[in-house]
Amino acid sequence: KNKDVVYNFSAGPSMLPKEVLKKVQMELCNWKNSGKSIIEVSHRSQDFELVLEELEYNFRFLLNIPKNYKIIFCHGGARGQFSAIPLNLLGNYTNADYINSGHWSYAAAVESRKYCTPNIINIKNKCNKKILIFSMNDWKINSKSAYLHYCPNETIEGIAIHEEPNFENTVIVGDFSSTLLSRVIDVRKYGVIYASFQKNIGPSGTTVIIIREDLLHRSKSICPSILNYSKLLQSNSMFNTPTTFSIYVSNLVLKWIKKKGGLKEIEKKNQEKANLIYEMIDNTDFYVNNIIENNRSFMNVTFSISNHSLNHLFLKESYSFGLHCLKGHSIVGGFRASIYNSMPKKGIIKLIKFMKIFKKKYKK
Ligand code: PLP
């Protein structure tokens, strides 16, 4: 019976709401009774333009995005933004601050070296086997930097920075790839927010950029047109053919979030789901999570088993139990349960049930 329902804990592309998938299935071959599939219609058609408009409206509604912020949808994923950010924001500056809290924030800093000298600020420390993250007050930022880049949710390590930035006269850039739409944020604290879609937003392919309009005039002349924010905006995110399918599905996902009560409700549920797993882990020495409580991610729960020789069995048996994609990223090993908005509480309960059964079976 346990095999009946499969829960997908993949870090991305990840689970989407079942309701959304059913609607996509219904409309796939006959969108809006047009006799055509959504993936066959022109992005220049009025019907598709309406979808794009609606998607932008839904982002504005859910995140309460002020009027002086523009929204861009483009290709290239979050990695594309690792180049686009310096190319669009450096202007005449030669330095930028990059917070290093884990794999993705460091990767962004490394890419930026092609365009500037990053001031890499390490905020991770280890104390008594626990990973600690410095509070924002202790970040040593450089006043001569064009911007400060950080990643509020390190998808691989399961590290989150829940604090919101409060730096005066600094342009804050956030890689929100694995946290956008999972909780309430104050967009006004940021100059640029970007996220690729394949976690909380929809199918892979699209990246969203939310940018304060006064930052739109700092691009370098060498910036490729396809990454140039002003160009992308002038063409209404249609400088080249947009990722129509991903845009269509994500619009349905955003409508689903609205139906669920918006980000306040979603945030409550996400915290509750994650805390159930952390509580289970903390109540035993069989499973370990070594991140300080304040900086544990509500999106990616990472853990290991003290006895590493059981890793293979854990993955094999969890899969048979209907719990898929729990393998941790190869950089950190162990396990990772990615529990984005679409993961129902039932999936969490089933995971905890399995973890308890497994512990009982193998604990010496
Ligand atoms: N940044 C974060 C926080 C991520 O989680 C990922 C992918 O998992 C990336 C960047 C890279 O995203 P993409 O594959 O869309 O380039």
List the helices and strands and how they pair.
Layout: E1 7-8, H1 18-27, H2 46-63, E2 69-74, H3 77-89, E3 95-100, H4 103-112, E4 117-122, E5 124-127, E6 130-133, E7 148-150, E8 153-154, E9 159-160, E10 172-175, E11 192-196, E12 207-212, H5 229-234, H6 244-259, H7 262-282, E13 287-288, E14 300-305, H8 311-320, E15 323-324, E16 335-338, H9 345-362
Parallel strand pairs: 1-15, 3-4, 3-7, 7-10, 10-11
Antiparallel strand pairs: 2-12, 5-6, 8-9, 11-12, 13-14, 14-16
Helix pairs in contact: 1-6, 2-6, 3-4, 7-9
Bound molecules: pyridoxal-5'-phosphate (PLP).
Catalytic activity: O-phospho-L-serine + 2-oxoglutarate = 3-phosphooxypyruvate + L-glutamate; 4-(phosphooxy)-L-threonine + 2-oxoglutarate = (R)-3-hydroxy-2-oxo-4-phosphooxybutanoate + L-glutamate
Pathway: Amino-acid biosynthesis; L-serine biosynthesis; L-serine from 3-phospho-D-glycerate: step 2/3; Cofactor biosynthesis; pyridoxine 5'-phosphate biosynthesis; pyridoxine 5'-phosphate from D-erythrose 4-phosphate: step 3/5
Family: Belongs to the class-V pyridoxal-phosphate-dependent aminotransferase family. SerC subfamily.
